[in-house]
Design goal:
Elements: H1 11-14, H2 18-36, H3 40-52, H4 57-69, H5 71-100, H6 127-140, H7 144-163, H8 169-193, H9 197-202
Helix pairs in contact: 3-7, 4-5, 5-6, 5-8, 6-7, 6-8, 7-8
Length: 203
Amino acid sequence: MPLFAPQSLPAPLRRLPVWLLDAKRVDVAVYRAITQTPTPSLDSKMSRLTHAANGSRLWLGCAAILAVTRGARGRRAAVTGLGSVAVTSAVANLAIKPLARRHRPDASDVPAVRGTSMPRSTSFPSGHSASAFAFATGVGTVLPRDAVPIRALAAMVAYSRVHTGVHYPADVVAGSLLGTTIAQATAGAIERSRPGQSARSRS
């Protein structure tokens, strides 16, 4: 069994291990299945949702609701969630995307009703998915029950990025895992920095 792609493929693909080339084929196939399956009841909803998450506006709104309705813990959850988004966005957009350099999908066959403008940044990982799961995970470290619907909303945002044609499935999976991981570390750092927390941890 060959370890690398056949020589008949374009030069960039010939350098890929066979297993990675196969994974890429599956990724593209799932993308095409989602974007080319008629779903008129979902199309406009997914388009509005993905636009709402631009610039983390959706998560800023959720943070405001938590801060107003859930008291001191809600404010702490909002700070933790937004802090996690900030760190995750920096890592995804400034460190990983420039290194990965994956091209965006060809969305020419995506129905116009799903339409969203194709971002200029590279595709891997999905920044929207990373921010969504970062916020949900950050909130969950303070308010676990309140985070359940937020996690569901985060999953819908991640799916919307594929549905609207601007990301491959692997992009959103990687972004979701990245956001979750960074948020856990960020939440721990925020918790340790709280006044009196170091003294309590030593007692």
